[in-house]
């Protein structure tokens, strides 16, 4: 009974000692993370393994050169360039050659009627009687070759070349679209990695702090200077914090692999990131942002190019009313065939024209004009949707900035409350559970601040993509 009385008198003193230890652990392990954004650039594990720091600018530069989606879109430009070269070959002469070599399955017989070569006073008809010319079964060859230079078709070819060149411009806009989308994805993934990295660092610091406190509580429990419930509470909080650390580490590693995929690197390439501090966006007037989007959004520029392509489709169909006129030189040869000439050549003009097509070209032109009207309507609707997106992202950015201001103030308030609660605990005016709850509140406020900061930068990236910033 005497020992128990002595122990009860020592409990307030030991509680002050525990509070002092807890407060010191908070100051040495948590405050550097809360107040120094540079401490978020590396987790303790990353510091041990010396993972190289990956800046946001460097990540964007790497993705621009090695991202697979961007590479695929660049191949579309190469394909469009080859299409132009392919169409331009239609300017040049067309060479055709056809050779049939072999032996006939039966003899070739030619009948020449009498007088086929004329009738003369001295000789009479030639031949005088019907004559049969026999060509035996033997190996022979039939050859036909021609060279034709298009003339009136050159106008049609020029329209096709213009349309193919527009295809290059359209493919380049596709590259810009993919590049902007990749940059947005890289920024969003980078901010998420930075947020998770900070969470992991905070969770590890909390685990170390609770480990130290748990060890101290075990010593005091052996000395019977604290209650068993207090020791069990600390152990429970330690297990919960270890679980939170595990989930944070898993999410952190998966998000790092996702960022490595966007950068076109091996999924397990080690790196660390830095959380950018809160910064003000270059002030954009909403009207200026709208004009910027209308001028620089690759989707809009692509829609305008598609309208021009549709207009060229109509012109090319109109051009089909022009006859195809070519200058042609041809050669015809027969080898080992009796009676037929060995060779024959011609030079002249070849005309191909279909003057009557039952209204096919008329209906085709009407169809292409309707398609052009669709493209124009789509372009106008896309302009409205782009303007709507700009306004939405502009407002989201303002909301994210306002939220970040609010949670930053809330974090400062929770830090002040923790200091006040520690003082109250040392003065025996608060319980250990109250101090622990206040620490949890500060941890939650810090997590909200990290999320708000990542949300701000994500909203900024979305706004820059909406106005067409490269």
Summarize the structure.
The protein is α+β, with helices and mostly antiparallel strands and 470 residues long. Helix content is 66%, strand content 12%. Residues 1-49 have low confidence and may be disordered.
- Count of runs of 4 or more consecutive helical residues: 11
Approximately how much beta-strand content do the residues carry? 5-15%
Assembly annotation: single chain
For the sheet with most strands, the description reads: 4 strands, antiparallel
Instruction: Tell me the strand order in the biggest sheet.
Output: 1-6-7-8
How far is the N terminus from the C terminus? 79 Å
Compressed to H and E, one letter per element, the order equals HHHHHEEEEEEHHHHEEHH
Helical residue percent band: 55-70%
Strand tally is 8
Structural class: alpha+beta
Low-confidence stretches: 1-49
- Gyration radius (Cα, Å) is 42 Å
Shape: elongated
Q: Mean pLDDT, nearest integer?
A: 82
Characterization of the model:
By secondary structure, the chain is α+β, with helices and mostly antiparallel strands. The chain is 66% helix and 12% strand. β3 and β4 (124-125) form a beta hairpin. 24% of the residues are buried. Mean pLDDT is 82; it is low at 1-49.
Name the features.
single chain; 470 residues; 4-stranded antiparallel beta sheet; 11 helices; 66% helix; disordered N terminus
Write the layout of secondary structure elements.
Blueprint: H1 2-29, H2 31-35, H3 44-49, H4 56-66, H5 68-88, E1 94-102, E2 108-112, E3 119-120, E4 124-125, E5 131-135, E6 140-150, H6 153-222, H7 228-262, H8 286-296, H9 298-319, E7 324-335, E8 343-352, H10 360-426, H11 432-466
Antiparallel strand pairs: 1-6, 2-5, 3-4, 6-7, 7-8
